[in-house]
Give the backbone structure.
Amino acid sequence: MRRGFVVIRRETPGDRSAVDAVISAAFGRPGSDQPPRETALVQALRRDVAWIESLSLVATCDQRIAGHVVCTRGWVGELAALGLGPISVVPAHQRHGIGLALMYAVIGAADAAGEPLIALLGDQGFYGRFGFVEASRMGILAPDPAWGAHFQVRMLTDCPSSIAGTFRYAAPFEDPQRKTAAP
């Protein structure tokens, strides 16, 4: 099957149900009739002051939404920073470069906006290719020490050289079930 080209653009209010469907498809458990918690997380983030419209991006393929990524406001001490996640690609489009395109786009958009850094919890093998490193190596501590090396940061152009402290995600991330869930 020949796939169309991928376009990365900002999420619009009209995209919300399609984005929720993408997240549910990417994170859903076979046989479960409940939406995954990542879907509820993004819905809660949209209602939170930490939501940054310009950093909620969708990937379209053949004019249909096939992927989504979001960065929301986080903090390292008193310094505003970004927390990335979730990133989602519908299963039929996984391993075709859409996740890579979304990552490059959101990193570029965050850097162009003058943000200092992006933090995330995820697989080192995947995120390392985008310049993410273990956060503790950069003096930034995970919200949960159990996350260890899976908590990573990507310093951007405007990152001060003397940044240190514990990272705080937006309030919707404080779901106790998410707090100890390492990849």
User: Anything to note?
Assistant: The chain has one domain: 6-171. Confidence is low (pLDDT under 50) at residues 176-183. The longest helix spans residues 98-112.
